[in-house]
Write a structure and sequence with these properties.
alpha+beta, 15 helices, five-stranded mixed β-sheet, Beta Polymerase, domain 2, single chain, 354 residues, 12% strand
Length: 354
């Protein structure tokens, strides 16, 4: 794709707040749909410090907040120390002690000898940030209800903004898995990672037409969901080829897309169509820590991550899903039959064990 940008028609440009899609915008959207790992990216696509600040804002970091900047500095310092001590990599001085954190992102986006080193630093920072956020979540006495409520409030506010702007959203649904549903899902999973459930909180956005799907996802990328926080291997696109989606939405012609990464759900019908992504949504918790737990914020920061599923359909596709063999009630029936079969293998198995 080179450095080509794609001019948008006036109404769509007004909705998205940009006059054209950049190469970075295209790649970030494809990354979200395909569910790859940010650790595999060879570069970023920021061009200004303001763009970096906007990105960090949706990551719940305000560069005007001294404590937030200090936290980012601590994560950066840990990444540099790891690269030197564990990997034996000599970090260039300009990146080891940058004037401001935005410089790392800009170096990772620019052509030149610093780009590879800057990308390495950011990838290690990404991992450290997630590890320490997990520690914070483990130690901080905060209920799931509080965290889920914050995610739902933030998502609902963003969708409300889109509706007010005039995005073609026909319906919006928020849901949480019940205890019975969680038990059924865990008993039906055969992988060693069965204890990990990514869709305990789920949001469905239904657009009036298929060409409205990618504009909605673009807005989410810019205002809610940091693209590096997509959980690798958990995205699925059974709705349409990415090439046709980009052509319909933006008039952009792309080369053939890579196949989506997520393993097929054995209980979903072959006719079920959806774009589904799972994102570690960042949630601020600094106001939830009492005095006795303030040390946790100093050590691990003020952000935790809540894995959250987003399903996006167009209205016609959603109707077909829910009115035929791909309907959710049939999905649940297949899942329940699998659980019963696993819990009670049957009399033949019992005879074999005698």
């Amino acid at each position: 794709m080179g450095t080509k940008s794609y001019t948008l028609e006036q109404r769509l440009a007004a909705l998205l707040g940009v006059s054209a899609l950049s190469q970075g915008d295209i790649l970030e959207l494809r990354h979200i749909i395909e569910g790859g790992s940010i650790v595999d990216w060879p570069r970023l696509y920021f061009t200004t410090a303001e763009q970096v600040a906007e990105f960090l804002r949706i990551c719940e970091y305000d560069l005007d907040n001294r404590l937030h900047v200090e936290r980012l500095t601590d994560i950066h310092r840990g990444a540099v120390e790891y690269m030197r001590a564990a990997l034996g990599i000599d970090v260039p001085p300009m990146l080891a002690k940058p004037e401001q954190v935005q410089d790392i992102f800009l170096a990772a986006s620019a052509t030149g000898p610093l780009r590879s080193s800057a990308c390495m630093i950011l990838k290690v920072m990404h991992v450290i940030h997630h590890l320490e956020a997990r520690e914070l979540l483990y130690h901080l006495p905060v209920s799931e209800r509080q965290l889920f409520s914050r995610v739902e409030k933030r998502v609902s506010a963003t969708v409300a903004d889109m509706q007010e702007l005039g995005f073609p959203i026909d319906n919006y649904q928020a849901s949480q898995k019940t205890k019975d549903s969680l038990i059924t899902k865990l008993l039906s999973k055969r992988k060693d990672t069965a204890a990990q459930v990514f869709d305990r909180i789920r949001f469905r956005i239904i657009t009036t037409q298929r060409k409205g799907i990618l504009p909605v996802m673009f807005y989410l990328k810019r205002h809610l969901l940091p693209f590096p926080y997509v959980i690798p291997g958990e995205s699925a696109n059974t709705l349409a080829g990415e090439e046709s989606l980009f052509q319909e939405a933006f008039g952009v012609e792309l080369e053939r897309a890579r196949e989506t990464k997520a393993a097929p759900n054995p209980f979903s019908h072959r006719d079920f169509r959806v774009i589904s992504i799972v994102v570690d949504v960042p949630v601020r918790v600094d106001d939830l820590a009492d005095v006795s737990h303030r040390w946790l914020l100093t050590k691990f920061g003020h952000v935790v991550f809540i894995p959250t599923e987003f399903q996006v359909f167009d209205k016609a596709t959603y109707f077909l899903n829910e009115s035929g063999p791909a309907a959710h009630e049939h999905y649940k029936s297949r899942q329940v039959r699998e659980v019963i079969a696993r819990l009670y293998p049957g009399p033949e198995t019992e005879r074999d064990e005698e």
